[in-house]
Amino acid sequence: MNKEETKENKITEEFEEDSIENLDEKPVEPLEEGEDKKVTEDLIKEIEVKETKENWRKIREREREEAALKSWIPKTELGKEVKAGKIKDIDEILDKGKKILEAEIVDSLIKVKTDLISIGQSKGKFGGGKRRAWRQTQRKTKEGNIPTFSAFAVVGDENGHVGIGTGRATETLPARDKAIRKAKLNIFKVVRGDGSFDSVGGGETSIPFKVKGKSGSVRITLMPAAPGTGLVVGNELKKILKLAGIKDIYSKTSGRLRTTFNLIKACIDALKKTNKESQK
User: How many CB atoms lie within 10 A of CB 179?
Assistant: First the structure.
């Protein structure tokens, strides 16, 4: 070998060593025999522990709801009728246009599922961060800064009933409870279809016809879709449509879509128009 070739080989070797040392992610050493099984077993155990914790949490929430319903003393005439068993279907209330003033009325008539919409943003560099369910604000006083948290909740039974509500408190959990309670009071009926013209097939996976909604600068158009299409909408709108029992739909939006409040309100305005009685 020539001297020039040996020099080039040394330079390339030194460059490769320096590049490997400067990398943030160094090459991973291969696992030995038996370590693969241990790693997979540990991951399975972690997943099982998380699932058991979630199941226990859901069981506790159900027990609390059942205890609250048993100890519920209605204050309105509508609540007394529901408690006595005279009204067994929530559509009897919504079709007549009666106003619900107690959240326990909804809990006793339908099985409610809840979800929170991401309206806040976590702290991050350059003003950027991940979206989160809590929006934090501060009020300046002589004593110091007083933080407040607001939440945006969606409630539905995945069978044609959905509602939204907002809550605000000095802590996160009370804000969530307020938002869920208001969402139950604002629940309404959504008419569903099978995605065909005038719902000839009789299915309930989509909406019966095209509807439009607006709120602020946001405009949204919801269009029926055939079974198997899926929810062709934004991530936050999927939460509402899933709880409403809609599985297939197209959407078209315009305006300032980053304002989540107006986007959700526009979607709710469009879903309310599916009820033919409201259009008369």
Answer: 26
Buried b (16+ CB within 10 A) or exposed e, 103-131: bbbbbbbbebeebbbbbbeeeeeeeeeee
127 in Cβ contact with 138 (< 8 Å): no
User: Which two three-digit tokens encode residue 193?
Assistant: 């279809």
Convert the pLDDT of each residue in 192-205 to its tens digit.
988 776 555 667 88
Facing residues of 138 across strands?
147
Query: Which residue in the block uniquely carries the two structure tokens 């914790």?
Result: 53
Domains contained in the chain, CATH given: 72-109 (no CATH), 110-189 (3.30.160.20), 211-279 (3.30.230.10)
Nearest to 187 by CA among 94, 61, 95: 94
Place of tokens 């929006």: 135
Q: Which tokens belong to 63?
A: 């027990």
More confident residue, 53 or 30: 53
pTM for this model (two decimals): 0.75
Query: How many residues in the chain?
Result: 280
φ/ψ (deg, to 5) at 132:
-140, 170
Tell me the C-alpha to C-alpha distance, in Å, between residue 81 and each of 74, 112, 236, 242.
9, 20, 36, 30
